[in-house]
Design a protein that fits this description.
alpha+beta, 2 helices, two-stranded antiparallel sheet, two-stranded antiparallel ribbon
């Protein structure tokens, strides 16, 4: 099974709706990039699921969200 080149960082874009809610202005955004550990890189490595005309077709990220897991 082929694997896509591993991602080494996870980037999250965080949206602040306060300007929109309070002033009718555009939301503000901030970007946070987190370096992944080797284990995390392996956990989210996208795998080839099939081939089309000799080219690998990989899984894709469908959704991502923040959780507080105790």
């Amino acid at each position: 099974m082929n694997m896509k080149k591993p991602a080494t960082h996870l980037t999250v874009v965080i949206r602040d709706d306060s300007p929109l809610i309070h002033c009718g202005d555009n939301p503000s955004y901030r970007r946070v990039t987190i370096r992944l550990t080797d284990d995390q890189i392996n956990d989210i490595l996208l795998k080839s699921t099939s081939q089309v005309m000799g080219n690998d077709v990989y899984e894709s990220v469908s959704n991502c969200f923040l959780e507080d897991i105790a």
